[in-house]
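Changelog-linked ticket: zinc ion example.
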Amino acid sequence: MAGYRELLARVKEEIDEISAVEAHERHAQPEPPLFVDVRETDEWEEGHIPGAIYTGRGRLEQRIEGLVPDKSRPLVVYCSAGSRSAFAAKALADLGYESVVNLAGGFSDWKRNGYETTIPRVLTPEQRSRYSRHLLIPEVGEEGQQRLLDARVLLVGAGGLGSPASLYLAAAGVGTLGIVDGDVVDESNLQRQIVHSTDRLGEPKVASAKRTIEALNPDVNVVPFEERLTSENVERILEGGWDVIIDGADNFPTRYLVNDASVWHGIPVVHGSIYRFEGQATVFAPGAGPCYRCLFPTPPPPELAPSCAEGGVLGVLPGIIGSLQANEALKLILARGDTLVGRLLLFDALGTTLDEVQVRRDPYCPVCGDSPTITEYVDYVEFCATPVRS
Ligand SMILES: [Zn+2]
């Protein structure tokens, strides 16, 4: 049986090593290798190499493929002195990573050379417990959770779609939720708008939603806009600087305003709509795919728009579509997975089927096309006195 020193020496013969000086040079390259920190959590929290990702040695094999799916990506593995990471580098090579080097001398040498380090913000014990199921998945983890806490999502509408979307985003720890809605809670809303409740009848929806969300998660700051989105207020509302917009609007004029504003501000919109038993969802990401006007350049003429009396909807349907919207928003914030950019998802609640159609950016689109013809906000007239409820 080989002793530890013998084993370490043998492993070191099988891996490539670089010095702190060389690691620092590579770190400064325009496309630096990915630094992987395999120390204990408390060591990481005291400081680490900027841009490094963290995965403790104990779970390295289990987590690394989720964190670094591309096995050709060059990796620099480090621990405090270069021994634990030597074994880690060997394990990564065994897993098929093609370009792995060990930082000889580890983080200690890096620091001794006076190179830059980062002290990560850490979650409080309460947050660690609240978000523990996120921390367990490598695609979120502590860094992802911090991203969520820093994120700002604007929900247009606190109705059927905005209810589940806001609740799940709040539960997930999205730190700031703006909510735009000028309505008050009505009895007929409660069949599907689950962020509200019977004791809120007559209360502004934004106030009701704020109470429910803040009771669910004190980490979330709700910014209420008790108004209907118009060409007059859209710029002021967007001033807050939002990472993602969730469109849960219940009428065409608002959808077009949201679309045009998002294109001009470069903010992705997670779109959802519902009608009776049918729901749709997609992501309009300016520059990366089509916008709403690529699909529907102008609103339908009033005689073709669904009449108000027909605006019924199965109560759970907005729950499903709004949850899909929350899912897309979380992925956009985390920059993980494939979003619905360029894909329109169609859900049929009666048949329980899910279909998707490809949607493309239209170079002749009046807003995001190559020669836009619409360059100012348009206020379309509401089609009916009581709009179709989301
Ligand atoms: Zn477009």
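Closing comment: Example verified and attached. Confidence is low (pLDDT under 50) at residues 385-389. The pocket of zinc ion is lined by residues 290-291, 293-294, 361-362, 365, 367-368 (CB under 6 Å).
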